[in-house]
Amino acid sequence: MNMEKISGHSYVIRGGTNTGVYLFKDKSALLIDPGLTNSRGNRIIRYCEDEGIRPRHIVFTHEHYDHHGAAKVIMNHFTGAVSYSSAKAKLIIENPEIFSGYIYGGKSNSFLEESFSQKGADIRVDNVLESGTVKLGDKKFFMHEISGHSPGQMGIMTEDKVLYIGDAVFNISILEKYSIPFLHDIGAQLDSLQRLRELDFEYMVMGHEKPVLERDEAEETLKRNTQAINEYIDQAREFLTGPRTREQLIADIIEYNGIEAGYKQYYFTSSTVASIVSYLADHGEIDYELEAGMLYYYKK
């Protein structure tokens, strides 16, 4: 494990989930998304001890367990470290059953929950962040609401113009691998992608795979994310030229795109498809009918 410099005092630690680091002059640190597992947390602890770094602030960009599961061991080791997230992310981080419940659409079950590694994580969030400027230590950071992938996602930009975005944008390689991104709110995601284009950053730090994109590469990635979402919206429009239940629409999209869906991936896809249906409904493009106990959607 090592800490790679991006610009100024802004760094990244690569991993299954990339961890952002801002290093203050006194060698205290802000960590952004420490990762999933206790082993990841312990590796960060050992690295910080070896380098004389003391984490004092930990920011969670959003509520998904792969971004905050490692925080507990770090906070237990570095006593006095303070954690931060948005209000919506705090609610779900501290009550993880909400996440699997809204993915499933009711009380979750063992088929789904065995796919998650968050059981008993017991992570606390000490402070709630809102959009705008926040002072941590002796430095200012700039918080940006970028929901869509999750309800509570925020980006954080340092004075070095390094923007850490969690999973607000997917690497092109991830779009090619998984085809359909996991999204909670399609409309909010499209708005967030546009908002990100308008921000004055020089580097964008991704949550997974290739961590750091320079401005030009980030612009292309933002464009590809928008295209991918619009392609799926257009697919739904085509499938809904005739009445389809939500289950049928999910099957259409999985089969048409050759998506390999286990139990968890099925419900992630289901969540995205539900968001597409809501997007089309909110834009007045579809209607519904209930027949023989089945709820059908169709294009107007």
Automatic annotation (TrEMBL):
Keyword Hydrolase found: yes
Leader peptide range in chain numbering: none
SUPFAM superfamilies xref list: Metallo-hydrolase/oxidoreductase
UniProt entry tagged with the keyword Kinase: no
InterPro entries: Metallo-B-lactamas (IPR001279), NDM-1-like (IPR050855), RibonucZ/Hydroxyglut_hydro (IPR036866)
GO MF assignments: hydrolase activity
Top-rank taxon, per record: Bacteria
Keywords of the record: Hydrolase
Limits of the Metallo-beta-lactamase domain: 18-208
Coiled-coil parts of chain: none
Name of one Pfam family that matches: Lactamase_B
Protein name: Putative zinc metallohydrolase, glyoxalase II family
Originating species: Peptoclostridium acidaminophilum DSM 3953
Lineage: Bacteria, Bacillati, Bacillota, Clostridia, Peptostreptococcales
